[in-house]
Amino acid sequence: MVRKRRLMKSTGMVVLTGTLLAGCGGGGGADRDESVLENLNPSGMPIVKEKITMKGFAGKFFASADWSNLMLWQEYEKMTNIHMEWETVQVDTLAEKRNLLLAGGDYPEILYATAVGKADLIRYGGEGVFIPLNDLIEKYAPNFKKLMDDYPVVKKGITMPDGNIYSFPTIRDPEFMSVRTRTPWMKKEWLDKLGLQEPTTPDEFYHVLKQIKEGDPNGNGQADEIPYGAVGITQLLDFLKGSYGLNTHGTANGHVDEDPETKKLRFIPAHPRYKEILEFANKLYGEGLIDKEIFSIKTAEFTARASEGVYGFVSNVNPESIFNQKGYIGMPVLKGPHGDQKNTAIGSPLGNLGQFIITDKNQNPEAAVRWLDFFYSDEGAKMFFMGFKDITYKEMPNGEVEYTDEIINNPKGLNLDQAVSQYLIWPGGYYPGIIKQKFFKGAEGRPSSIENTQKAMPYTLKDEEIWPAFNFTSEEQDELTTIQSDLHVFIDEMRDKFISGAAPFSQWDDYVKNMEKMGLDRYMAIYEAAYKRYQEQ
Question: What does pTM read for this prediction?
Fold first, then answer.
């Protein structure tokens, strides 16, 4: 079947094939027994009258989790009359296994939480392996359709250049801001002990970091405090970009934003203000105000170090949840040297696009869409993240829901993620559905996380200013992938070298020229074409 579709594509018939599939709703192929529709309930539960089985491939965070015995799927099967026969792999090997399945044609009826990238959505969608969902969403996904209507950025972000939608995404509720953005955290106790005010400019930030390094705020007589730490330097740079007038439409498009004066796209890593940020970071690093191991430290090592309370500032999710460190508060949005004071480190409400895909092997695509659509409703989000009353959650007098004592204070000593994962699948990653503040009780949903975000809100980009990641045609994506495979690696390498001092800033002009030799002009032309389509949607 895969070979046949590739032949059709090579002979110029892929447009016709995609149109026919989109028109009929896709799935099952011409030999599908249409009587399956007689088994479908168009609304309500169960989804089907007689039980059916679907085969699904999924990524999971905890390697030991057995999805066939999880309460979430067992109870949902009772509700829907649909049995899911899961093949799961741990996220560390997910991409490799997923790619092997698709390349070999041995893929199942649905791909769930497999983070399929845009290049593969376009490729396998064009070949007919992933069925178009446009008509199916219109007829069988009222919850998801409402979200597309309420938030046009969702529809724009998931529609490929051929006009088709091939996957369901993770959606971060636009009103749940602490899951979409946050400023770095700072240890308020240390600032108070040193008599320091919260920094409001890059220069003041430098001064506070220097005082933490030299002032012994933990009072042990040793210079063991680390002013700033994180896993990698990216989070700090993204935070600073808004203070230097960059990332004017958020972070979803990585290295590309719009010049507010010319209204033209610009390439951030070649911009003079990006150079200024690197020079500032170089100053911090050179004076020991940034963890010397920031470029190489792994998550586990960083977590262990942060759990000892040695950092004055950290970029991460809530330190209280992750490091068991209380007393950290959100850092102010800084006013930069050119007068910019914006929090632009914010993503689109869209998470990964390729989180639920129906393949051409599925004989019940309508039922599959209804099965998934439930998780875009309040009822579905509540079950997905909170589980089941009096087992994993309890209702509070104020109408809120909270996890039970078994989850929060597990008698076996399990942390929250481990305890939840005995029943549910959400810890460790995002899955298709909607993440809502009232049902998400992870680190981003904690009161201090919400306070952190609220502190930055007066300076945070508005939703209408935020772009989703642009979508590219198959040809554009192939060309872009070739260019950025070298270009992005070079950018990251030189970023770290400039900051660490391994490369002097006298090499900046050569750095820009090298990017131009790598195809920067063509890279930007492709983005311009995608941006034009986005504007016309």
Answer: 0.81
